[in-house]
Amino acid sequence: MIEAFIKAISATPGKPAGVSRRTDTVAKMIDTTTCIGCKACEVACQEWNNQQVTFGNFEGTYQTMPDLAHNFWNLIKFNETESEIGTPLWLMSKYQCMHCVDPGCLKACPAPGAIVQYTNGIVDFNHDACIGCGYCMTGCPFDVPKMNPATNKVHKCTLCTDRVSVGLEPACIKACPTNCLSFGTREDLIRKAEDRVSTLQSDGFRNAGIYNPPGVGGTHVVYVLAHADQPEAYGLPKDPHIPWTVALWKGPLKWIGNVLLIGGILGTFFHYVRYGPQRDE
Amino acid sequence: MQVSRRSFIKGALTGGAVTTAFGFDVRPALAQARELKIARTTETHSICPYCAVACSVIIHTLGDKAHNVTPSVVHVEGDPDSPINRGALCSKGITLRQFVVNDRRLTRPLYRAPGSHEWKTIPWDEALERMARLIKNSRDAGFEEKDAEGRVVNRLTNTAMIGGCTDTNEINYLLGKFRFGLGVVAYENQARL
């Protein structure tokens, strides 16, 4: 069991109550080369989270849905593309919350306590505190959080924090029949992913690599891609960053605003002390 | 105790000020935000009925078997102790809860009379009685003790038996026993054992 303390909390300045104990971080590893597109992880996610989604129409692909939904947190993308020698490639990739080390959703969220990052790396939404503004949807570089129009709350994968906190693996990981998904500490899984990449490279996939984008500080969902030079082919952004608008607003603009506000209050106070109240002459 | 309006307001303001000054921290509560839905369920081991792989599953049932509890299946997942599936399940097997808890599930026998196009609900006793009667009739009519050359065969060739794909291995085992008892030769279950 990996203990989870609060690491960061939305719209709350300063650090949460200090944790002096070392805690490991958890991660999912997705080896896209062994995914067979059976969608067991999709159904396991729906079952564990008691969700039922209404599917749309058939659109010429085996993919369950075109995109994630507020009640559909885990999607296998069936990406069709061509290899460099012109043969068809069918690249499966699992699409869910990436549990970024530096989460854009948490940075953008203005509701105190609505988004929480735990020391084990899980980023979770607390729907009692969510105000339904949707800023997290703007802040997310992977376009993962989705709004429920009926309740105006935003939902996404929790990395099964309820299971992980008692020492179980997430539901999707447990279901996977081909060993494509694995769960463990992040260091172990990155090592495992590196091993897998070297196997793939010796098998002739020269561009095999790990997808663990540094633009968001790394993610707690690590991919092994056979064509890591073109993550777009898997439906993954090449170099994701928190949008500059959110970064500017939550960074410099916030402090400029604070300085102006305090300056205004102090100015008013000193003006009153120096000149006194305005009187009609 | 008499509380005047004045002292009530004083008390409320003091309490508010103290809470504000010393802080009311909700963070410990946040860490416990999600409860494990299978924390105290009863675990029952079974076998997925869908295909011939026969993955082991754990069926999580509401309640601790206390006699005032009406149990209901709340969750099904793979059994990690099984050498067959080692905890994994396919997209069909993982929906087993919906197979058990389903308002479209048949719980009463339906009977369609020969030539009729209507299904009608009949009591279990009537259904079992009728099935037993018809099986016995055709067995009495077609049972062969000896073949043409006088060898003992004890076989029943006018009846065949097929097991359904959603029968568990236990059901198929019992069907096998039943078939030996009758002497049925033509026997198939979909488990491909």
Major beta sheet of chain B, specifics?
3 strands, antiparallel
Largest two-chain interface: A-B, 32 and 27 residues
Structural class of chain A: alpha+beta
> What letter string, H or E per element, gives the SSE order of chain B?
HHEEEHEEHEEHE
Give me the side-by-side strand order of the main sheet of chain A. Answer: 9-2-11-10
Mean pLDDT of chain B: 84
CATH topology of the largest domain in chain A: Alpha-Beta Plaits
- Average pLDDT for all residues of chain A: 90
Radius of gyration of chain A: 23 Å
Name the strands of the widest sheet of chain B in spatial order: 1-2-3
| Structure summary, number of beta strands of chain B | 8
Helices and strands of chain A, in order, run as EEHEEHEEHEEHHEHEEHH
CATH architecture descriptor text of the largest domain in chain A: 2-Layer Sandwich
Low-confidence stretches of chain B: none
Structure write-up:
The complex is a heterodimer of chains A (281) and B (193). In chain A, 43% of the residues are buried. Chain A has 281 residues and is α+β, with helices and mostly antiparallel strands. Chain A has two domains: 6-240, 2-Layer Sandwich (Alpha-Beta Plaits), CATH 3.30.70.20; 251-281. Chain A contains eight helices and eleven strands. The model of chain A has no long low-confidence stretch (mean pLDDT 90). Chain A starts with 5 loop residues before the first strand and ends in a 6-residue tail after the last helix. Chain A has helices at residues 40-48, 104-108, 135-139, 161-164, 171-175, 186-202, 244-250, 252-275, and strands spanning 6-9, 26-31, 75-82, 88-95, 115-118, 123-125, 146-148, 153-155, 181-185, 209-211, 221-225. In chain A, a hairpin with a 5-residue loop joins strand 3 (75-82) and strand 4. The model of chain B has no long low-confidence stretch (mean pLDDT 84). Chain B has five helices and eight strands. The longest helix of chain B has 19 residues, at 124-142. Helix content of chain B is 32%, strand content 23%. Chain B has helices at residues 5-22, 27-31, 96-100, 124-142, 169-182, and strands spanning 42-47, 56-61, 73-78, 110-111, 120-121, 143-146, 152-163, 184-189. Chain B has two domains: 42-100, N-terminal domain of TfIIb (Single Sheet); 110-189, no CATH class. In chain B, the strands form three sheets. A three-stranded antiparallel beta sheet of chain B has the order 1-2-3. Chain B has a three-stranded mixed beta sheet with strand order 6-7-8. The interface between A and B is medium-sized, with 32 and 27 residues.
